[in-house]
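**Fold tokens**
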Amino acid sequence: MVKHKKKNEWLEWGKAIFIAILLAFFLRTFVFATSIVEGESMIPTLEDGERVIFNKFIYLVDEPERGDVVIIKRPIKNYVKRVIGLPGETVKFQDHQLYINGEKYEETFISEEALNHTGNFGPIEVPEDSYFVMGDNRAISKDSRNGLGFINADDIVGRSELVIYPFDEWTMIK
């Protein structure tokens, strides 16, 4: 009787561990993952070496929105950038001011210094099924203006949600 009870207990533990591993694999593959920020192109929002959790599921049910901080898949490395222009929009930057479809857009997420270091460009029309992205540290960012080009919707892996490392800097990403 005692042997049978121990065997059932081990079987229950084994099932629980198997289910936990399966659930963790599912969440890691389809819902959440982590990424390490490399470089200073997203300062002040994100800094070099920070580890972020990003939501992989969100863009299966919704589209990226202006202001989202996204992970972009590229063959050599992934990039973290902010969505600025949506499919079909016209983006222009002139005299320290961003214009979307001819209307001023206030970028509350970057510093005045970053605005002052953004050179004039455009107007640029964003193709359908593509996005125009920029880093928050415009002076040094490789983005849609200078190397990354338009970002295809399929290349956006997920939306950055939370800084989890360093531990004393846990914060939601806006």
